[in-house]
């Protein structure tokens, strides 16, 4: 038996990476403080460096792929959406034509005008996505439980996450079996939708049944016994340095607020 | 005082017409090993659910009669407290994985965490149980991605690690190969030797014959036969109730029918061999 793995439970969980090993609450404080600072500054000269900083931290934490899978999509959607909205609101005045898409004239000014907004949304979401990409849900729940959240709530969160994974798997299974019965599941959106909607019923029923099963399964593990739980897997509590870091992050956030008002 | 006392118990699941249990009376004594056999849909699992308190606390429905656990009516028991005293291994191992742990080692430890066992003790117990069930090469695997047999072992390990004084085990070997089945029965035997009360539902009749103290044959929600293992399993009438007879007992009856009876009907191989030798 792998005694190194077993021994890992005897001390606090560590990965050796500075950012990953920060206490989830510390990480949450830092990410939230920076997210709000982006909202306060509302300036591309602040937003862009913050976006880049998020990418760099994700890279250093070795979680860039997870981070960017999500962040890349958010970036695309936000940029497109804000630009289009700005474009629609920018029909008159002193404008410079930029590109013409099938008779729809886009203007340079709309890109510039959207810029501050785009970078603030991206700075804000970047900080939050960075947090979730580098903090396993079970670690976050562990920390919340340490702060007094009930283990029932923690279980509901974690079980829902697993439920989503299970549902995905189940929907693939159902689609496969439909395919084997000769129902078309590949092709354009309409064909896919037609194949997908009939699977919702069994999926939903399955989810309800599995919730009941999970409740019984947890009962078999004495989940609701009125005793203080122990934790096999423990995280280091936030050190004084880490607490100072959290406070510093919020002081910085407050500073941006002051800066914004006196400017 | 009996550990579990059933007195004229009938039970109907909600929204169903037929009674899943009919007029059941039986006493389960502390420290004994009971085997429950019988046809599919006979009510074996329902009886387990009842003793463990899932009926009526979780499955509502209509319950009549007295069910006493340690002298206290099941309706007055707190389900949570029962869960710390009676371990229950489900018939379907796929529904016994918590879904919130990322490794098998942590999955097996979950019950002990909930019971508030100190960490060092948890590590020791889980390590031992994993060795016992030969899942030590799986401890780092994701419990949600195991085969049926592996899940069954993990589910079994998860419950026996809690070391409850009573165990209800519903078909623990349905997904296992003959070797795995033997392992599990070996473990149940050691559990029995440590004086635990065990109720086991199992179709593998030769295993039941070898290990159990008493047998209940269930059919259509009632107890058709009950008594000491040898007496019940050598009785050919149980076959009319969807239960099997051990190979050795079938052999014994065949010999008798052929006009060459053994001194008595054997129910295990080790019992049959000397009887056959004596005949010569
Ligand atoms: N959750 C439920 N809701 C309604 N009816 C149920 C439920 N579970 C079982 N039953 C019914 O109760 C009866 C007894 O079922 P039970 O599962 O106890 O049988 P069993 O002896 O364990 O069968 P098997 O050998 O197949 O496991 C059956 O008629 C079954 O249809
Ligand atoms: Mg059953």
From TrEMBL, chain A:
InterPro entries: ABC/ECF_trnsptr_transmembrane (IPR003339), ECF_transporter_component (IPR051611). It is a multi-pass membrane protein. Coiled coil: none annotated. Pfam families: CbiQ. The keyword Metal-binding does not apply. It is found in: Membrane. One of its GO terms (cellular component) is plasma membrane. It comes from the Bacteria. The chain crosses the membrane at residues 20-40, 46-64, 71-90, 110-133, 244-262. Keywords: Cell membrane, Membrane, Transmembrane, Transmembrane helix. This is Cobalt/nickel transport system permease protein/energy-coupling factor transport system permease protein. It comes from Pelolinea submarina.
TrEMBL record, chain B:
GO terms for molecular function: ATP binding; ATP hydrolysis activity; ATPase-coupled transmembrane transporter activity. SUPFAM superfamilies: P-loop containing nucleoside triphosphate hydrolases (SSF52540). InterPro entries: AAA+_ATPase, ABC_transporter-like_ATP-bd, ABC_transporter-like_CS, ABC_transpr_CbiO/EcfA_su, ECF_ABC_transporter_ATP-bd, P-loop_NTPase. Its main location: membrane. SMART domains: AAA. Coiled coil: none annotated. It is found in: Cell membrane. Pfam families: ABC_tran. Residues 4-245 form the ABC transporter domain. The keyword Cell cycle does not apply. GO terms for cellular component: ATP-binding cassette (ABC) transporter complex. Keywords: ATP-binding, Cell membrane, Membrane, Nucleotide-binding, Translocase, Transport. Belongs to the ABC transporter superfamily. This is Energy-coupling factor transport system ATP-binding protein. It comes from Pelolinea submarina.
